[in-house]
Amino acid sequence: MSDINKKPKVLVLCTGNSARSQMAEGFLNHIGKGLFEAYSAGVTPKGVNPLAITAMREVGIDISHHKSESMEVYLNDKFDFVITVCDNANEKCPIFPGENKRIHWSFDDPAGVEGDEKTKLALFRRVRDEIKTRIGAWIASATKGDTL
What we know:
- By secondary structure, this protein is α/β, with parallel strands linked by helices.
- The chain has a single domain, classed as Rossmann fold.
- The protein is about 35% helix and about 15% strand.
- It has 4 helices and 4 strands; from the N terminus they run βαβαβαβα.
- Strands 2-1-3-4 form a 4-stranded parallel beta sheet.
- Strand 3, helix 3 and strand 4 form a beta-alpha-beta unit.
- Helix 1 packs across helix 4 and helix 2 packs across helix 4.
- The longest helix is centred in the C-terminal third of the chain and has 27 residues.
């Protein structure tokens, strides 16, 4: 990056932009404490899942104000990092302008689970915790200069 004071822009993509990418954006903003300019989008956006909001609220992060957007909104934007959090988004991820690093992490889709609310929320919590661990490790590595 040419401007040392510029925050790295990060786009997190998943299929529906309803859960995984929304949670990842929330963790990037929360754990990153303003180090990143984080966004999320989906291949086919479906709205922010209420159980994602609940799961994130349980760990003190409010994503209720997030919007579910199409990746097409960002096709002309430059990002330093594009992170896909599901295989479908990884396969359909477009090429964004400028130089960016693509990162792929595949997480189970909590929005796709069948069952009662207790069963669904359990998967949202597990995926939330996996995303938190991955984002935390990536930020720790990035702030040591390994990734940024």
